[in-house]
Here is the input.
Amino acid sequence: MELDLTLVFAGVVAGAAPIVLAALGETITEKAGVINLSLDGTILLSAMVAFAVAFETHNIILGFIFAAIVGAAVAAIIAFFSIYLNQSQVAVGFVLTLMTRDLAYFLGNPYSRLQGPQVLSLPIPFLKTIPVLGPVFFDQSLPVYFSLIMMACCGWYIYKTPMGLRLRSVGEHPLASYARGIDPKKLQMVYSIGGGLLVGLAGATFSLCVKPGWGRPQGAEGTGWIALVLVIFGGWNPIKAAMGAYLFSFLQIMGIYCQQWLPTVPAQVFQVAPFPLMIFTLLVMSLAQKESVLNWAENKPQMKSVLAFLSGSMPSALGKPYRPE
Amino acid sequence: MPRYLVESLLALFAVLFSTTIILFVSGAPPFAAYYYIISGSLGSWIKLSQVIQVWVPLTLCASGLLYTFRIGLWNIGVEGQVMLGAVFTTAVLRIDAAKSMPMLFIGLSLLAGIFGGAIWAVVAGVLKTKGGVNEIFAGLGLNFVGQGIILWLIFGPWRRPGIASMSGTELFPQKLWLPFFPALRLSPVGLVLAVAALILTALFLRYTRLGLNLKAIGNNREAAYRFGLKPDRYMIIAMILAGGFAGLAGSVQAAGVYHRLLPAISSNYGYLALLVVMLSNYNVWITPLVAFFFACLNVGSIQLPMMLQLDSSLSGVIQGALVLAAMGVYAWRVRAKMAQGMVQR
Here is the structure.
């Protein structure tokens, strides 16, 4: 098959949209010090809700709104259990991963394999005629534009605004931010819900745009975990996490091409390939932080810059709920 | 009535209430659904034996998970460990010589299953201790890889002569099945193994130095390290034990229940066992009871698609809601005690 690079990259940008949204949402949540481990299930549940609502009301916007509410609600449960009830975020998140997935399959059963509404593509006049860049960035649908805009917005918000500073301070040192007059519990709750909204929109982007429709399996299974790993890959930087999502989407599309080029390799290999890759990425990330590796790279400028790119600091209070003394 | 009983009933009632609402939302008659779940799991001896068939792998996995939870590890990879156990068992039972010495090879296949599960657990454990990769992501990734290996085997080297399909590999010769009661289609071997695993785990955790050390590291890794314990080594040991029990569960599924390898061999029992242990509040003796209850829900909900055209995943919703409700009640109790000044934090 011919490899049309413009087409490939347009596919990468479109296919990555939900993953970008989920990774951005999770980055915001984790920046505030809360881990929302339920991403995989939440994306499925919100995808189901988006499709069901859009199908019943013939209104795609309502589908997106309800999906965002679902994402926010699940995130709020995790934040509430952790912040106000002192329960382990990982435990609650894991339970909700399984539960929301099962709830999606259960409630979504009547909507399986139905032809439903989906977002139409919305090329931007003039801009879409730019060679290469036009088809890749400006001949897409609204959720895709939204993911691109959100990426820039999140980066700007977290690093350039006073609110973003407060957000980071709560994730790094809740006690110190409390001393500065910030209410860590409240902010953690707010940003968990805010991140959840984006995760919910990611689900809607799947079922109404990228992989239209609902079924068991939907096709979005596993992406929640990928998004969680992308946050680590991005070193808790939203732009880097989104770049990771594009890289992942690129590899996914290359996988499809490879399947056609190498028909002797079983399809199952390509289906599970992202996951060993995910472990390998985490391994490299973690080794890049090790002192012995850093010492080894001391006199190798190229290696040093690679390691600098891979480095990223985890919010110090991540996963440790703030308890006033 | 003791207070914890009141609270447990309260949690149960809350779950029942929310499940009823979910059923109403989906337009299904709630009481009919409950009726089919109960009659589908406890309605006859055959159904009860199906419940026990689910209880066995759940209890085996849960026994293993008690070690990893005790040391503070989230062994989400248990699902993949079940799969690898089944793969290794199948590999042994497919050897040609197996037919001439069935008993020997059945025994070997169970050992191979334990070995397979343990290997998969050690990979996650080493990634954690040496590579610094969080065990949740390592385990989860390995689960997907395990699923990929099974699919590849079923559609590749172990495919059924003729057509390869999702229904799995060819059935093992009947000589190589775990012995079973024909009337109930239930293998007593699995039951004995599960009970043995449970008792062994209880003794290990309660009466051995290993159990004490696991607990010490789980409670305070830093203090345990300064005391001279090696947390990394104990983490690997806990993973090997957990993986071994999970692998045995996979063995029993392959050799005693399905008599072949199929894509859904692990049936999510690993993930479910995590919920079982959490709901048991990490207590060895409550674990089998919760596992039995969850097994009832799983088996009973198979009736839903047939009788009410509902998806059987309702059982998963109920199970998750139970764990959440239990956590809520537990947190509320701690709070109430703290308010009374009964416990010092």
